[in-house]
Amino acid sequence: MNDAPHIPPLADPYSLPLDQLNPARPEAFAADAHWGYFERLRREDPVHYTADSEFGPYWSVTKYKDIMAVDTNHATFSSLSTLGGISIRDQRVDFPLPMFIAMDPPRHDAQRLAVSPIVAPTNLATLEGIIRERAQTILDALPRGEAFDWVDRVSIELTTQMLATLFDFPFEDRRKLTRWSDVATAVPGYGIVDTEEQRQAELRECLGYFMNLWNERLAKPAGPGDSNDLIRMLQSSPATREMSPQEFLGNIILLIVGGNDTTRNSLTGGLYAFSKFPAEWAKLKANPALLDSTIPEIIRWQTPLAHMRRTALADAELGGKQIRTGDKVIMWYVSGNRDEEMIERPMDLVIDRKRPRQHLSFGFGIHRCVGNRLAEMQLRIVWEEILKRGFEIEVLEEPSRIHSTFIKGYGAMQVKIAA
């Protein structure tokens, strides 16, 4: 049985009465047709209530400053999984996946601290050499003068190799990590999994695999030559060493998706952006030092996570609207990163912006992405190596996009490197 619901056709967002505007349309994101919804809301109703959607009623927060106000106020706006979690699609009661990003302090802080050494400066310095070597190998193996899928050959492969290193995961099985990442965020019936039952079965397979790794590491204490991996970090912290199986799975999924989707989709999105703004590519070739501002600009332009969700713990006023206790509040990062009041020419890729880090893609406050520096480093290294090789890469057709209001990403993108 296919779980895909009947979806009404997309309408011009300017043709609808404002109170009927529902920007949470996965099919709009899949068609790259979501921009008009957010443009209208930023202009006419920046804090907007949608009474009826497939996700239930919710508030849309669409302007930069309002998003910041929610993101930095965890005392009023909660991430708790028991209240629904961090996505507009409520956490399932029958298959809960508690994870530290879907917790509030103090539990959130303790569990986040358990894995933060993975991005300590000394560890990043070690990882930089590994990433560069792998990026060189991947790029040198690409064909010249013939079409190939950039998503599969470059974006997925590099990030999956990195994930395998961070978990000290068996390298030959690394594509399992890609699959579990896709399954975890999939909407049943739209190409990744057919049913919710299939999704849960594959995530239980993920749990079983990682439980075996957990038990193997417990049986063999880390020695001087062993890697300081995420599993051992979870084992060594009092906040995470006694997790329930579902909480263990939740945190593993969080680390897999967090370590995969931001980098993977920004690697593809950056190349796609340069195909749309060739003058910026020429600018970067002429001055590779602009990579320092190019990387955060790519991440802003792509916005690999379209939104984050909070649940109101108390009545609150935002943008002149009254939000009630228990209301679902969606911070549309994809809209805040296009806010004309905060960002000049927001729809364009501009690699020499004066303040390129003024973006929302990593979130703000206590839930700011723990791996943001690692993601930026991977992107920087790939583009450094592309520039060194003098690659001229042509995007041959529009990429396929993910059917999701959460992951703003790509399924495939055919490209060709000039011979």
Secondary-structure blueprint:
Blueprint: H1 26-30, H2 35-44, E1 47-50, E2 58-61, H3 64-71, E3 77-78, H4 107-115, H5 121-140, E4 147-149, H6 150-167, H7 175-184, H8 196-219, H9 230-236, H10 245-276, H11 278-286, H12 291-302, E5 307-312, E6 316-318, E7 321-323, E8 328-332, H13 333-336, H14 372-389, E9 393-395, E10 400-401, E11 410-412, E12 414-417
Parallel strand pairs: 2-8
Antiparallel strand pairs: 1-2, 3-5, 4-12, 5-8, 6-7, 9-12, 10-11
Helix pairs in contact: 5-6, 5-14, 6-10, 7-8, 7-10, 8-10, 10-11, 10-12, 10-14, 12-14
Overview of this structure, please?
- The chain has 419 residues and is of the alpha+beta class.
- The chain has one domain (18-417): Cytochrome p450 (Orthogonal Bundle).
- 44% of the residues lie in helices and 10% in strands.
- The chain has helices spanning 26-30, 35-44, 64-71, 107-115, 121-140, 150-167, 175-184, 196-219, 230-236, 245-276, 278-286, 291-302, 333-336, 372-389, and strands at 47-50, 58-61, 77-78, 147-149, 307-312, 316-318, 321-323, 328-332, 393-395, 400-401, 410-412, 414-417.
- Strands 1-2-8-5-3 form a five-stranded mixed β-sheet. Strands 4-12-9 form a three-stranded antiparallel β-sheet. The chain has a two-stranded antiparallel sheet with strand order 6-7.
- Helix 5 runs parallel beside helix 14 (372-389), helix 7 (175-184) packs across helix 8 and helix 7 packs across helix 10 (245-276).
- The N and C termini lie far apart (47 Å).
- Residues 1-6 have low confidence and may be disordered.
